[in-house]
Design goal:
This protein is α+β, with helices and mostly antiparallel strands and 227 residues long. The protein has a single domain, classed as Class II aldolase/adducin N-terminal domain (L-fuculose-1-phosphate Aldolase, 3-Layer(aba) Sandwich). The protein has 7 helices and 8 strands.
């Protein structure tokens, strides 16, 4: 999966990912997408509807969550959350903040969904942050990023989820399979979770499966609708 590079292409990639998340049903009125723009800044969707984002609506922020490009009045309240994760995790280059229904239900439970289906492993490790407040301050963001730790996804109690990745495709694949994992954990509540040693063996296939998953998601939800 190819990383998006260059400020202009980062903004375009962030906006396209936002539109895809809307088509995928992983966001409705709320949610946001970001990606690193160099090592000391990141591009972040504005509060405009994610289904209508383009390069002109994407903001540029520094790692203190200060807007350096674009209209600060339309900056999401949770910008500090993105900044804190980028400060803590040099490996993270993209973040998808979602409110998909089944993942949100597990967030309300304050529990990570067990992995009952092999492809659920494409979500990566899932952590939980037991705090219902919006992550709108630096202190709150530091706590949330600490809860994420080295995981790939974070459930925010009563407030949806986020996924991280080494690029936008990886983050969006993880968001999709977090939702699948959450839904199947609910539908197959009596199924035994996959044993940890079996899950570890399955991981050897994850890179290839993730690439295939991205190609499908891009083909299915990446249509540009005249853009």
């Amino acid at each position: 999966m190819d990383a998006v590079t260059g400020e202009a292409s980062v903004a375009a990639g962030v906006a396209r990912t936002a539109r895809m998340l809307a088509r995928m049903g992983l966001v409705e009125g709320f949610g946001h997408v970001s990606a690193r723009a160099g090592e000391d800044a990141f591009a972040l969707t504005s509060v405009d509807p994610l289904c209508a984002q383009d390069e002109t609506t994407v903001l540029l922020l520094d790692l203190d969550a200060q807007v350096r490009g674009g209209d600060a009045s339309v900056c999401p309240l949770e910008a500090p959350l993105h900044a804190a994760i980028y400060r803590r995790r040099p490996d993270v280059r993209a973040i998808c903040r979602t409110h998909s229904r089944h993942a949100a239900a597990w967030a309300c439970r304050r529990q990570a969904p067990p992995q009952a289906h092999g492809l659920g492993g494409l979500s990566g490790a899932v952590a939980v942050h037991d705090e219902i407040e919006l992550v709108a301050t630096r202190e709150q963001a530091e706590a949330a990023s600490a809860a994420l730790g080295a995981a790939s996804c974070l459930l925010l109690a009563a407030n949806g989820a986020l996924s991280v990745g080494g690029d936008l495709p990886e983050a969006i694949v993880r968001a999709w399979y977090l939702e699948e994992r959450s839904e199947l954990a609910t539908l197959a509540a009596d199924a035994p979770p996959i044993a940890s040693e079996s899950a570890l063996r399955r991981e050897r296939h994850h890179a290839a499966e993730a690439r295939r998953a991205w190609r499908w998601l891009d083909a299915r939800f990446g249509a540009e609708d005249g853009r």
